[in-house]
Amino acid sequence: MTPLLRTAALLRTATLTLALGALAAAQDGVTAYTNATILPGGKPAMSNATMVVSGGKVIALGGADLKLPDGANVVDCKGKTITPGLIDASFQSGNNTQDLNEQSDEVTPNLRVLDSIDPEDPRFARARNAGVTTVHVMPGTRNVIGGLGCVLKTHGTDPKAMVIKEDASMRIVMGSEPSSGNRAIRGGRVNSMYYRRPTTRMGVIWEVRRAFYDAKEAMTKTQGAPGDAPASPGTQVLMEVLQGKVTAVTTARSEQDLRTALRIADEFGYQTVIDEAQDAYMVADELAGKKAVVMLGSPSAEGVGGSAGRDGAAPRAGTVAVLAAKGITFVITTGTNPAALPLINEAMFAVRNGLGPQQALDAVTIEPAKLLGLSDRIGSLAPGKDADFVIWSQHPLDPAAVAESVLINGQSVSQPR
Amino acid sequence: MNHSLLRIAIACTTIAAPALSQDLVAIKAKTIHTITGPSIEDGVILLQNGRIQTIGKAADVTIPWSAKVIDASDKVVMPTYVLAHSNGGMRGANESMQNVPWLSVADAIDPASSYFEEMLRNGVGTIHVLPGNNTLMAGSGMVVRPFGRTVEDMTVADNTGMKLSLLTGNGSRLQKIREMRRAIAAVREYLADYEREKAEFEKEQAAGAIPADKKWEKEIDRKQKAAVELIEKKMKGWLYVPSFAELDEALRMSKDLDLNMVLGANLDEAMPLLAKLKQPVVLDSTIEYFETDPETRKEEQHCSARMLADAGVPFALSLGAGGPTSYPWWQIGTCMRNGLSKQQALEALTMVPAKMLGLDDQVGSLAVGKLGNIQILSGDPTSATSWVDTVVLEGEVVYERSKDPRLKYLFEAAEKAAEPQAPKASDNSKKGEGQ
Questions:
Q1: What are the pLDDT digits (tens) for A23-43?
Q2: Which burial class, exposed, middle or buried, applies to B410 when counting CB atoms under 10 A from its CB (0-12, 13-18, 19+)?
Q3: Could you tell me the pLDDT band of residue A197, with boundaries at 50, 70 and 90?
Q4: Burial class (CB in 10 A: 0-12, 13-18, 19+), A243
Q5: What is the pLDDT, as a whole number, of residue A181?
Q6: Residue B87 near residue B133 (C-beta atoms within 8 A)
Q7: For residue B271, what pLDDT is reported?
Q8: Closest chain B residue by Cα to residue A399
Q9: Complex ipTM, two decimals?
C-alpha cells in the first residue's frame, strides 16, 4: 500500500469513527420537543406542552414552563400534535399468509409466529410510516389453534432485537375459517397430506375441546415423575393457558362464534380475549358479564352502505358505541381485514361512528399496551416510558393528518413521505 | 334529421327535469362554501323555482314571509357533489360482448338501487353513469340525479358520451389496444362505405339515372349510429385508461376522437406524459397506492391526484363502490394528506366534474341562477365526523338524516345501549361529535 493510500485509509477510518461518535452523542443526547399539543394516552390533551427525551426514554413531560436540561437539542413542534406510538394489537405480517398457517396439523399451540417474522416485510415499514411503533403478531386464522403470538417494535433488522414480548398470546379460531377448503377423506389414506380436518364448525370446536381435554388430563399427572411421559410441547402451552400464564386470544366474528368462544372458555375455565368481534354489539351483555376484553378488528369495514362482514357476521357502525356504553374494555386493530386502513384511520372511523376522540386514541395506544401487559413501557407518554411517539401534522383523527415523524426509542424511524 | 336524432340533440343541450317547486325556499347557514367565490359566514340562500335567486350575508337578504325556511344556522352549506364517472346504480354494468356501442345505461339504471340512496347520504347530487370498465366499446351514458322513481324522473341529460375502455381482460395489453384500433377502424370503414354509396346515388341522380325527386333513404345502421357519432366527434368518448402503460395509446386516440379520460391509479411511471393531457381528467376511486421496488423491496406510496396537480392538469375525483373511498370526506382527506389544498380537493368533486359534463352553468357551485342543488352538513366537509344532514335538489328536500332508515338500523344498537345514561340525547350529539 502506498503512503498516500494508507493516509486515505486512515482518514476514512477517522471519519467513520467521527460519524459513529456523532451517532452515539445523538443517542445519549437530550432532545426537547416543545410547543406541541400532546395527547399522552389515557389522559386528557396537553396544549403548548413539552416533552424531554433522552437515552431512548421519556424523561420529562410538562407545560411551557418545564425547565429544559442544559444543552438539550430543541425541536419546535408548534402546530403539531404528539401521540404515543400506536400499538396494533392484531397485526398481520407476511405477504404470504401461507407462511402463517401451518398445514401439517390443525392444532399447533406450540408454534411461534416469531420464527416466521421477516423484518424486511414491507408491512412493517407501511405500519411504521403511519405511526404504528408496536405490533402484536399472531399466527394465521386457518388453524383451530394457531400458536403463540409475540409483540414487536416495528423497526429493526433482527426479530430478536425487535421483540419485546415473546409468547404473548395463543390464538384459537372459531367459525368456518379453520374448516374452509378442508375435505374429508374419500378413499385415500387416513394420514394423507391431502386430507385435512375439520370440515364443519362442530369439527372445529371438537378440535379445541380435544386439545384442552388432553391438557387437563396432563395436568392431573405429576410432570417429571418417573413413569409419566412429559406432556407434549403443545399440551404444555395449553396447560399454561389453563393456568392463566399465557393469554388466550379467540378469533370470532359472528354472533354464533362469539357465543361459542365464551362457552368454550367457560367450559375449561380460562379467560379469553375476543379478537375481530364484528358482531360484538349482539352479545355485548355477555361480553360485559364475562369481563372479556375485545380486540375490535377494522371498524372501517363496518360500512354504512353495505355489510363487510366475514364468516356470517353483520358489522354495524354502532358497535364501538355499544362497547363503550356497556363498559367493555376494547382495543381497535387492523385485524384480518385485507383492506384495513392505517390503524389511526381505523380509530378515526370509530370516532365517526360515535366513539369519543380520546377513547378512540386510547384504544390504539394505552389500552392495547395494558392488554399485552406492557403498559409500564409503552402506550403512553410519561417519564420512564419508551420514547416511542409520533409527531402529526395536525390532530391525528383528522383525515388530512400525516405522521411527519415516527420515533422508536427516541430514534427517528420513518421515511419522509 | 329524423325524430330520434332530434330527441338526442335536445336532450344533450337542455336540462330535462323542470323545477319541481314553485315555492320559495330559504336556507339559513352558519357557513356557505360557494366553491367559486369566497365562503360566507352567517349566510342565507334563497331558492325560487328550484334555482338560486339570492345568496348573501343574512344581514343583507330579506327572507320573504312566504318562504319555507330550512334552518341550518349551526351547519355548513355547500353545493352537492358531482361525479363525472360512475358505474353505480346499474343492474349489470358490463356487457360480456366486447363491442356494443349501441347500448345505453338508460336500460340498466335501477332507480331503486341502494347506490342512489348511498349517494344522497354522501351529499352527491349529480352522477354521470357510464357502462363498466370491462367492455371495450360499451355504450352511452347519462347524467342522473340520485332521486326519482323512474329513470325519466332522474334524468338530467342523456346520451352524454360513449364509454370506451382499455382495461385488460384475459388477454394482453397489446391485444386490447389492437382490439380497440380494429373496432374504431371498422366503424370508419362502415362510414366510408355508407358515404361512398350516398355519393354514388347523388352522382347517378345528377346523371339522370335516378329520378330527381327520389330521396336518399338509407339510414345509418342502428347498431352503428352511436359509434359513427363518436368518430365524427359529434359524441364525446369517455375512455378508461387503467394504468400508465395504456396512456400513450390513449393520447394517440385523443388526436382523432373527442375524449375525456378516466385514469386508473398506477400512473407514477407516466409522470412525463401527464403534462401532455390538455383537458381535465377523471381519476379512479383509488388515488393512493403502494408500489414496491422489485430490487430493493422498498415500498413507496404514490398519490395520483398529487401527480396530476403537480403536472398542472385539473382532475375530478370519483367515489368507490364501498369502503372508505366511497366517502367524499375520505377522498378529500386523501388529497389533503398528499399536500393538496382543501379548495383544490373540493373543486375536484364539484366544479371540475361539472365542467367536464358541460353542466357548469347549472351545478358545481352556489351562484345566482344555478340549480338549487345543496347539501347541508353537520360540520366541515373535510372532517371525518361530519354527516350530511339534508340534501336539497332543485329546491326540493330529498334526503334528511333524521329520517334515514339505514342509519337508524346501523346505529339503533348504540342508541339503545346509551339510553340509560342519556335517554334524550339527540342524533347529532352522538354521531357528529367533533374532535
A1: 434 446 899 999 999 999 999
A2: buried
A3: confident
A4: exposed
A5: 75
A6: yes
A7: 85
A8: B333
A9: 0.87
| Chain A partners within 8 Å of B411 (Cβ) | 316-318, 321, 353-354
What confidence score (pLDDT) does residue B80 get? 98
Contact B410 A399 (CB under 8 A): no
CB of A95 within 8 Å of any CB in chain B? no
> Which one of A129, A320, A352, A417 would you mutate to disrupt binding with B, by most B Cβ within 10 Å of its Cβ?
A352
Q: Which three-class secondary structure string do you get for chain B?
A: CCHHHHHHHHHHHCCCCCCCCCCEEEEEEEEECCCCCCCEEEEEEEEECCEEEEEEEHHHCCCCCCCEEEEEEEEEEEECEEEEEECCCECCCCCCCCECCCCEHHHCECCCCHHHHHHHHCCEEEEEECCCCCCCEEEEEEEECCCCCCHHHHEEEEEEEEEEECCCCCCCHHHHHHHHHHHHHHHHHHHHHHHHHHHHHHHHHHHCCCCCCCCCCCCCCHHHHHHHHHHCCCCCEEEEEEEHHHHHHHHHHHHHCCEEEEEEEECHHHHHHHCCCCCCEEECCCCEEEEECCCCCCEEEEEHHHHHHHHCCCEECCCCCCCHHHCHHHHHHHHHHCCCCHHHHHHCCCHHHHHHCCCCCCCCCCCCCCECCEEEECCCCCCCCCCEEEEEECCEEEEEHHHCHHHHHHHHHHHHHHCCCCCCCCHHHHHCCCC
* A349 at B interface, C-beta within 8 A: yes
What per-residue confidence (pLDDT) applies to B169? 81
Q: How far apart are CA B176 and CA B139, in angstroms?
A: 17
Burial of B185 (0-12, 13-18, 19+ CB in 10 A): exposed
Kindly report the pTM of this predicted structure: 0.89
- Using the Cβ of A417 and the Cβ atoms of chain B, whether some distance falls under 8 Å is answered with yes
pLDDT averaged over 10-residue windows placed end to end, chain B, 435 residues: 40 43 86 97 96 96 94 98 96 91 96 94 98 96 97 95 92 92 97 96 94 93 96 97 94 96 91 89 95 83 95 96 91 97 98 97 97 98 97 97 91 82 46 42
Nearest to B122, CA basis, from B322, B411, B414: B322
| Residues shown for chain B | 435
Return the SS3 of A303.
coil
Peptide bond into A198 cis (omega under 30): yes
Rounded CA separation B90/A376 (Å): 55
What are the CA-CA distances from residue B219 to residues A280, B5, B215, B254 (Å)?
64, 11, 12, 28
Spatial contact of B386 and B379, defined as CB atoms under 8 Å apart: yes
**Of A71 and A338, which is predicted with more confidence?**
A71
pLDDT exceeds cutoff 60 at A307 = no
pLDDT at A23: 40
Instruction: Give the closest residue to A379 by CA, choosing from A57, A35, A87.
Output: A87
**Surface of B (256-295) touching A: CB under 8 A:** 290, 292
CB < 8 Å to A395, chain B: 435
The C-alpha atoms of residue B197 and residue A95 are separated, in whole angstroms, by 62
Query: Residue A243: what pLDDT?
Result: 95
